[in-house]
Here is the input.
Amino acid sequence: DQQVKQNSPSLSVQEGRISILNCDYTNSMFDYFLWYKKYPAEGPTFLISISSIKDKNEDGRFTVFLNKSAKHLSLHIVPSQPGDSAVYFCAASDRGSTLGRLYFGRGTQLTVWP
Amino acid sequence: EAQVTQNPRYLITVTGKKLTVTCSQNMNHEYMSWYRQDPGLGLRQIYYSMNVEVTDKGDVPEGYKVSRKEKRNFPLILESPSPNQTSLYFCASSSTGIEQPQHFGDGTRLSIL
Here is the structure.
C-alpha cells in the first residue's frame, strides 16, 4: 500500500504562471519530506526539502508547504518556466524509525508551455 | 567531477543468468541506495546502506542482493533474474543519509527475457 501519493499524474501550466504539485501521505510518523525532479534519460535531482517542524520552506522559485494535520504537502513553482517541464517526485521518511528508508510517490509530469 | 557511475547502462539478458549492476561514487559519501522505476509505480527503494558493511532492505528487496565492502561501491546483484525485474534502476548516494540531497546515477535499463 503506497504511503506517499501523488494523485495527479500530469499537470500542464502556461509559462509565467504558478505550478502547484500536490502530495499526500498516510504515515503520521513521517517527519521529513523531499521533492526530486527528473528529466528523461537522467537520474532524479534534488529540489527542496522540509522538516515536519516547519510548515514552509523556500528556495528561489520553489516553495514547499507542509500541512501536517491534513498529511499533505505541495510544491509551488513561481514563475513556471519551460525548463521546469519534468517529472516531480515527492518523497517522505520516518527518521525516528528507519533513518535510511525513503518512500516515493508515483510522480507528476509537469509540462510548462510557452 | 562529483558523480555516481552505474554500469552497464543497458542490458538485455535471459531468465536465471546471474548479473551484477555496479555503482560507484567519488564523493566519499556514507549513504548509498538502489531504486527501481516502473511505469505507474514511481521510484521504489530496493536496498540502502548507511555505511560500509551496513545494509538494509527497502520496499522491494526480494530477488536482489547488495554488498558494501568499501565506501565507494555498492553493487546490486540479481542472482536469478526474472522478467518481473525488468526495470530502470538507479543508484544514489548522499553524505550521511536521506536528509542530504541524494546524487543519482544516470540509470541502468535492464530487460530480462
In short: Chain A has a mean pLDDT of 95. Chain A touches chain B at residues 6, 32, 34, 36, 41-46, 49, 89, 91, 93, 95, 98-107 (CB under 8 Å). DSSP finds no helices and eleven strands in chain A. The CA atoms of residues 33 and 108 of chain A lie 16 Å apart.
